[in-house]
Design brief:
This protein has helices at about 5-25, 40-55, 65-75, 80-95, 105-120, 130-145, 150-175, 175-180, 185-200, 245-260, 280-290, 300-315, 335-345, 360-370, 385-395, 410-415, 425-435, 480-495, 510-525, and strands at about 5, 100-105, 235-240, 260-270, 270-280, 295-300, 325-335, 350-355, 375-380, 400-405, 440-445, 450-455, 455-460, 465, 470-475, 500-505, 530-535, 540-549. By secondary structure, the chain is α+β, with helices and mostly antiparallel strands. The protein folds into 4 domains: about 5-200, Alpha Horseshoe (Serine Threonine Protein Phosphatase 5, Tetratricopeptide repeat); about 235-310, Alpha-Beta Plaits; about 325-435, Phosphotransferase system, mannose-type IIA component (Rossmann fold, 3-Layer(aba) Sandwich), CATH 3.40.50; about 440-549, Hypothetical Protein Tm841, Chain: A,domain 3. A 6-stranded mixed sheet has the order 15-14-11-18-16-17, with helices on both faces. The longest helix has 23 residues, at about 5-25.
């Protein structure tokens, strides 16, 4: 048995459903307890783009076309590092089966090899014990099995078993996983994908999909699903006006059912309201005329409607880039009304809503870049989990753009502040990068789950202080933690004169803010110039930046 486009299409859809159902389970495997757009959420949102794109494809599509469509959608919709890596794995897979109508064992082995190579190249410092490891092990098993069997299902089954075994070993490869007693979250997501694809190939039904009842509707119109075969093309509706008997209404229903389906006949005093799907709407009208005069007549060609909807789904095109009106423009990622306003004041053309808990996709970033009327657009991700998506957008962009890998809001603001409109691209890139690197960044947030990390026994709800992206200490008092972190950042600058800026989050009350201001102004070093601003950012109670003169 070979894997054709119909099977591959079904497998992509099933894998997406499985990820959606399992995203909470995968999210909870994350060792780092900071609340964010976690692995399961990012992978499920990325794969959902693939599901949407292949759902509207014909079941007769070739396997190569199905995966090309799915991977293209994933690349554009990739969110977070885990989503980007997943999209790269399947983009490579798509390249490996390009032009193939059906897949044999050699095709599958070659495709997975290309996918794994693509994903490894995209990661600057690949770490074993992650999704990359599990993907590589699965690929190696696929290659071995291509010499032992001609049955892709046997090969895929062995590949799944190898991936599952590699997943169990991830705690041995990453001590941080072993200490927390969990496997790697991204690797778990990949195993779920491969397992569900195998079930789809075998034709096994999905028993765990949660189905919800559709909301009741008063409309007569009945929608046709995109993947449902349309036997009767014309959705026909009208009202018969005039006196009639219940028996006549039933006679009309019986006739309509003989020339179509989905017949709905509502007998209401002096009218009969009709809805039917048929290939002969004229016959439906003629029969209705035998019972009275007609009004509100309406015919819709459902095949044309579906084709139009399918075309729209297939395209989902990125807008045409705006005509340049200036040399340089800026797109930054941020959340919180105050933070967004500050970026706008600093010169950002577009602010993509995102950050922790909200990782924008590559397409979200690309749309923002295309809307900026500049020859070259700098992108400031301001979060380490958004950098890969931004870089992915850069690879598929038709517009000249450059990603400055800022990992925090303070870094992004410092970079923007260093921009000189009279300098060229290379000078600005260097100066902005250097300005970002000089900023000490501190974050005060809370633990979203119990965890053991960096030698700390963390309980859900603990106050966590992050210094330049790394966990510094745990505390139980919000004001004390913020003050301690600010002192550490100032000390690290080793300068007698520093500028300390505190962005206050949306969860911090004015009283709490006043307590911290009083403490910092009374006990911080004399050379510290302290400014408090309402950032209104979610997740982080305080974002602290420290810069030297």
């Amino acid at each position: 048995m070979l894997i054709n486009g119909k099977l591959l299409r079904s497998a992509v859809i099933s894998a997406s459903l499985a990820l959606t159902e399992s995203k909470k389970l995968i999210d909870e495997l994350n060792v780092y307890p900071v609340p964010d757009g976690d692995t399961g959420t990012n992978m499920s949102l990325t794969f959902e783009c693939a599901k949407e794109s292949v759902t509207v494809m014909s079941e007769a599509s070739d396997a190569g076309d199905v995966m090309k469509t799915a991977s293209s959608a994933m690349i554009r919709g990739a969110r977070g590092n885990s989503g980007v890596i997943t999209s790269l794995l399947f983009r490579g897979f798509a390249k490996g089966i390009e032009g193939r109508k059906e897949l044999n064992c050699e095709d599958i082995a070659n495709a997975f090899r290309i996918g794994v190579e693509s994903a490894y190249k995209a990661v600057m410092k690949p770490v074993e014990g992650t999704i990359l490891t599990v993907a590589r092990v699965a690929s190696e098993r696929a290659r071995d099995m291509s010499f032992q069997t001609n049955d892709p299902l046997v090969q895929w089954s062995e590949m799944v078993a190898a991936a599952a075994a590699a997943l169990k070993k991830t705690p041995e490869q990453l001590p941080i996983l072993k200490k927390a007693g969990v496997v790697d979250a991204g690797a778990k997501g990949l195993v779920i994908i491969l397992e569900e694809m195998l079930r789809a190939f075998r034709g096994e039904p999905r028993s765990s999909v949660q189905k919800t009842d559709a909301a009741p509707s008063n409309k007569l119109h009945i929608d046709i699903r995109d993947d449902e075969e349309i036997i009767y093309a014309y959705c026909t509706e009208y009202i018969v006006n005039g006196e009639h008997t219940p028996e006549q209404a039933q006679e009309l229903r019986a006739y309509l059912e003989s020339i179509g389906n989905c017949a709905v006949v509502v007998d209401d005093d002096d009218i009969i309201k009709i809805h039917v799907h048929t290939n002969n709407p004229g016959l439906a009208f003629e029969k209705g005329l035998t019972y009275g005069y007609l009004s509100n007549m309406k015919i819709d060609n459902m095949r044309l409607q579906r084709n139009k909807r399918m075309e729209q789904m297939r395209k989902k095109e990125i807008p045409v880039p705006a005509e340049p009106e200036k040399n340089f423009g800026f797109v930054t990622v941020a959340n919180g009304s105050g933070v967004i306003s500050m970026f706008k004041d600093l010169g950002a053309d577009e602010v993509v809503m995102g950050g922790q808990t909200m990782n924008p996709s590559a397409e979200d970033i690309l749309r923002a870049v295309y809307s900026v009327p500049a020859k070259t657009v700098f992108v400031l991700p301001n979060n380490k989990n958004i950098i890969m998506a931004a870089e992915q957008a850069m690879k598929i962009s038709e517009k000249d753009m450059f990603v400055l890998p800022t990992t925090s809001i303070p870094q992004g603001m410092a970079a923007l502040s260093a921009f000189d409109p009279d300098s060229d691209f290379d000078s600005n890139r260097t100066n902005m990068s250097q300005a970002a690197d000089k900023v000490g960044s501190g974050l005060i947030t809370f633990a979203s789950r119990n965890s053991v990390f960096g030698g700390h026994d963390i309980k859900s709800g603990d106050i966590m202080a992050l210094e330049n992206g790394k966990l510094s200490f745990i505390d139980r008092d919000l004001t004390r933690a913020a003050y301690k972190l600010a002192r550490k950042l100032v000390k690290a600058q080793r300068s007698s004169a520093t500028y300390v800026t505190v962005l206050v989050g949306q969860e911090v009350t004015e009283d709490k803010q006043a307590d911290l201001e009083t403490l910092m102004r009374s006990k911080m070093p004399a050379g510290a110039n302290i400014t408090f601003l309402r950032g209104e950012q979610p997740v982080y109670y305080y974002v602290i930046s420290v810069e030297s003169e």
